Target: Arginine transporter ATP-binding subunit
Amino acid sequence: MIEFKNVSKWYGSFQVLTDCSTSVSKGEVVVVCGPSGSGKSTLIKTANALEPFQKGEIWIDGVSVGAPGTNLPKLRSRIGMVFQHFELFPHLSVMRNLSLAQIKVLGRKESDALERGRKLLERVGLSAHAEKFPGQLSGGQQQRVAIARALAMDPVAMLFDEPTSALDPEMVNEVLDVMVDLAKEGMTMMVVTHEMGFARKVADRVIFMDAGAIVEDCSKEEFFGNTEARSDRAKLFLSKIL
Ligand code: ADP
Ligand code: MG
Model:
């Protein structure tokens, strides 16, 4: 569903990604972790063309992200993205946040978009909040709206970039629970997070990045197992967060 082939990227003369290769199959959940500044956000942003890359290839469901004729708005609408900061439209109600792109980008009828929005709000436990504005919701609630908004586009995969790291601790689980449900329902997911409880529960694989490179890419069992193969950098990182 998502494939990175020898992807490298520079900001000016600074190389931020070095020869990154990995793939996420349909229905697979891959957790990406690693120190701050290691390139995690950049890697997932390249996957839906929020950031260009200079070398290698990225394929999303058979479409080459970097190829000249690729329809980027269409590609982006097929990949749900959830960021650390919720990035809802502050001047629109929750329901408008959920329906706007369905109508504008997918060309859905308003009544269908609202219906889909209602179903998704129910799914993330926020049916009572449809007419509120984002600023009237807690951070955890806003993040659940952001997930629902991404799902409203019927994405083939979801990318998450530290979706819980800006939340107060008591709100982390309500967001992780929604993500765990999604994973269990078979959504293809690439999740940058340091929530190792989430990784243990639903990840199929764990990627560890350091200094712009994918240093480890292995099964969850291998990653959390006490293997000799563990790189020193990953050992150090894990010793700090576990
Ligand atoms: P992570 O998400 O793992 O913390 P990022 O992908 O955000 O890492 O950043 C990787 C590196 O790229 C960092 O050194 C960061 O300072 C640098 N970087 C990120 N965005 C830009 C940018 N727009 N211009 C220049 N350097 C950037
Ligand atoms: Mg980041």
The pocket of magnesium ion (ligand 2) is lined by residues 40-41, 161-162 (CB under 6 Å).
